[in-house]
Design brief:
2 domains, 9 helices, Rossmann fold, 10 strands, six-stranded mixed beta sheet, transferase, alpha/beta, about 290 residues
Length: about 290
Amino acid sequence: MSKNILDLIGNTPLVESRVLNQNPNVKLYFKLEGHNPGGSVKDRAAYNMLKSGLERGDISKESRLIEATSGNTGIALAMIAGVYGLNIELVMPENATKERVQTMRAYGAKVTLTSSERGIEGARDYAEAKVATEGFTMVNQFANDDNWKAHLKTTGPEIWRDTEGQITHFVSAMGTTGTIMGTSTYLKEQNKAIQIVGVQPTDNSSIPGIRKWPEEYLPKIFDASKVDKIMEVSQDEAKEMAKRLAKEEGIFSGMSSGGAATVALRLAETLESGTLVSIVCDRGDRYLSSDLFE
């Protein structure tokens, strides 16, 4: 029996593609991170960043925390900060779906919306200015090693365990890059031959949760040597695959998960044999006010 809600973070299910994968010699599994209590893979990083920060004394209940987010990290931070009794302000572009904003506020966080034209970069600049001038402490998912270490501790070991060490390829969208950095580190320690595949949007594509960062905003936790291949996916491909995941596999997810699945299926077609794992990073219900499923 779990003692509290935070004990339910991690150990998410791995389910095999029964319809979309057409290569009989390849097994494709989807790791369903929407089963975390906050609804996304970001629960893992948020928990490890806040828990480790408290344990080290870097933050306390007197800290005024702030973080820029495109959505999922903010929801996870809001939930976990609430459990710990921490004060947090979350900064998002104003075009974020209303479900995300309302969920963060429901968990007790203050939400500040910044210009949609500046995107997440503008939200990051706003948060950094508050740290510089008003004494806030940034959680800093883009540079905080506790982000990727969450996946070194949990996501990687779970995938290795649940595939019984048979995994040959790991596919993940790249946003803050915490998921792919930590999971890659663990899996490569078990078997250097495992291929780590990152997913980025094509030029002029906008896919929430997947970014091709300008050099000055590249996450400091990113280490290119931990990714064997980067494959691109278009906005239209990601949207269409999110719809197909729901309709054909019964997996209700967001657009970034559709992007990762597109790449995983593209990869599966090229292999003689293999075991692929693709991250389904959240649930589709937080996109219902968008045009994703229209």
